[in-house]
Amino acid sequence: MSDHFKVKMQSIDDYDNRPKAENPVKIQDLTLRDGHQSLFATRGRTEDMIPVAEMMDEIGFWGMEVWGGATFDTMHRFLNEDPWQRLRTLKRYIKKTPFSMLLRGQNVVGYRNYADDVARAFVEKAAENGMDIFRTFDALNDFRNFETVVAAIKDCGKHFQGCICYSLTEPRMGGEVYNLDYYLNKAKDLEKMQADSICIKDMAGLMAPYDAFELIKALKETTDIPIHLHSHFTSGMASMTHLKAVEAGVDIIDTCMSSYAYRTSHPAVEPLVMSLIGTNRDTGFDIKKLAEINVVLEKDVLPKYKHLLDDSKVSIIDINVLLHQTPGGMLSNLVNQLREMDALDRIDEVFAELPRVRRDLGQIPLVTPTSQIVGTQTVNNVLFDDEDEDYKMITAQVKDLCYGLYGKTAVPISSKLQKKALKGYERGTKPITCRPGEVLEPELEKSKNELKGLTTDLEDIVLYTLYPVTGKKFLMYKYGKETPPDSLKARTLEDVKKADEIMAKAKAGKLVEKSSGQAPAKGEHTRTFNVFIEDEYFEVSVDEPGGQPVITYAQPPVAPAAPAMPPQAQAFAAPRAATVPAPQPAPAAPTPSAPAPKPSTPAPAPKPAVSDADGTPLTAPMPGMIVSYAKEVGDSVEKGDPVVVLEAMKMENSLPAPVSGTIKSINFKSGDSVSKNDVLCVIG
Ligand code: CO
Predict the structure, then answer these.
(1) pTM of structure
(2) Architecture of the domain made up of 3-15+24-281
(3) Which residues surround ligand 1, an ion (CB under 5 A)?
(4) H helix intervals, 201-279
(5) Which residues, at least 6 apart from 658, have a Cβ–Cβ distance to it below 8 Å?
(6) Domain spans of the chain?
(7) Which of 132, 252, 291, 433 has a Cα-to-Cα distance from 495 of 20 to 30 A?
(8) Topology of 326-424 in CATH?
(9) In whole angstroms, what is the distance from residue 396 CA to residue 400 CA?
(10) C-alpha dist (Å) from residue 488 to 80, 357, 570, 635
């Protein structure tokens, strides 16, 4: 392979003027989207991308993925950042390299199919703000869900990259569903849709190196459209898979800067650049420039995010992926979900149940949102089913899937489950077979009306339509109607330094050392923290002398009905949960400096008092966020009527009335976070 490369290289500087390769492999960088999404729960802030933006623009990447996927959700929900603004800001620094985003087809950047007007407006706004390449995928590989967005992408004159989600039902490519023909046929479908490039999206890191070779070679023989490979490292195979894909002629490879690479992220760019030097697929990249970027990331950026890294395991690979063919993100969701329900010991039952649920649901690929749909339903089955009844608590999303609202599944859904799921389903009991977008009513006009008086900006309206509850909260902050809580603020290097100092003191046994002077009286706003250091535990009280008064925790209201605390104070107090006994963190994952934000459910709001001890309470079967109440105080309900919609792990669960009667009290409101067993309402 290296015959053409005759120049003798003695030092790294000699590589600067090496001859250009015949067929350089193109590289897309994912650091600023999938990189921090995979490793740091998508918490990367725009201000931390700017220090490396111009340097990265100089590398010669084919594209930089900077947006989409979970960024849109996380930014407005946890970072108090306007997702649209990030695009405009980054575009000021990254002028040469095309921007790429991950678009979930008709799911846009959310978790369900949205109406055509939403999908179109989203693409147009993204293009207007600087998006160039729209990497589009559908969780079911049902390309009818591309139709609306592809028309919009083409109308905007942008690059349509069609994805095929790589999925398996057995350890290697093949079998009844996900065999070579499946992928080649999907590629032909994308060719018909005039895809500008085709991406094989291996979100779980399932692709074995020799399967990659076979697949890429066959794809290159089938189509002239450039082939792009996206393979997560999770299982540990991706670096080998990349190399075999390069040998098979893949056109574009996805990588991250080394500090954002590996684990559930992607292989790093630097070893690939070095491996290919002198070959006919040499990237031509300047390895020294890449190293300079890493210095900035390591020194100025990553210390702020290190606490989010899952360091509960020593191993950086997850062989569960090889055993269960499930994406890493889905695995961590399952673990979190079980942990929140104090049922982590049932993980093996979940693994055993998962293939059955997936088969019942039509052997769908496991990728957002189907991985959450299958995962959550599996957990519900393990926790709530009994000998008498299967699928006792079916999520709203499984019902939608059974109705055909996500599209066509790889094989038909179990008819027994479909029938049960659609019993009393609001859209009808007969599933649809048309393109899902056709049955969805336009949504933007309704959102516009709901936002009257707050904003008329289309970007805001789209954001709110995608995320009504958290989107509304964000817009209230954005327009100064509410003060954002401190928990949404950025972690600074100063904060990191302080936390490190406390850690160092604690490790040296000096944390509990008495001050030499007279101790001042504890202030009224003293906050107490539990600090865990390996097996040791310290209770630390923090009082800010002369500082801003800190709202610690408002007492739960003694009066009946809704919590008296304003939403602001709740949001402010809840994540700190300082003076109330909080659930002990699992010993495996101590986070001494700052608690890592949970991926889906914010800390629970305080429990309101129950007003009527005589009634029958409807309790939360799991922690989550209240989406809505279907009833008001005074309404009469029949046993089994849906009363509350509770969002848990991004899935909506409709909770039925346990008895017939009248609603005596409603204890929460839309947007409130609740713990397991909280009394949501009382029926008497
Ligand atoms: Co990915």
Answers:
(1) 0.77
(2) Alpha-Beta Barrel (3.20)
(3) 34
(4) 209-222, 238-247, 269-276
(5) 616, 618, 639, 683
(6) 3-15+24-281, 326-424, 526-557, 616-683
(7) 291
(8) Cyclin A; domain 1 (1.10.472)
(9) 6
(10) 6, 37, 13, 37
| DSSP symbol at 425 | -
What is the whole-number distance in angstroms between the Cα of residue 252 and the centre of ligand 1?
A: 15
265 CA distance to ligand 1 middle (Å)? 7
Q: How far is CA 259 from CA 205, 241, 270, 293, 341, in A?
A: 19, 20, 10, 10, 33
Q: What is the C-alpha separation between 339 and 188, in angstroms, rounded?
A: 43
- Token pair in block for residue 353: 């149940």
Distance 1 CA to ligand 1 centre (A): 30
CATH architecture of 616-683: Beta Barrel (2.40)
| pLDDT tens digits, one per residue of 490-508 | 888 888 888 888 888 887 8
How many A from CA of 346 to the centre of ligand 1?
28
The pLDDT averaged over each successive group of 10 residues in the chain (684 residues) is 56 83 97 94 95 98 96 96 98 98 95 93 98 97 97 98 95 95 98 98 95 98 98 96 98 98 96 96 96 97 90 84 79 83 92 95 91 93 94 95 95 97 94 94 97 97 97 97 91 86 81 56 60 57 48 29 31 29 33 36 48 79 88 91 84 87 92 90 92
Contacts of residue 453, Cβ cutoff 8 Å, sequence gap at least 6: none
Q: How far is CA 589 from CA 305, 312, 336, 451, in A?
A: 15, 5, 12, 41
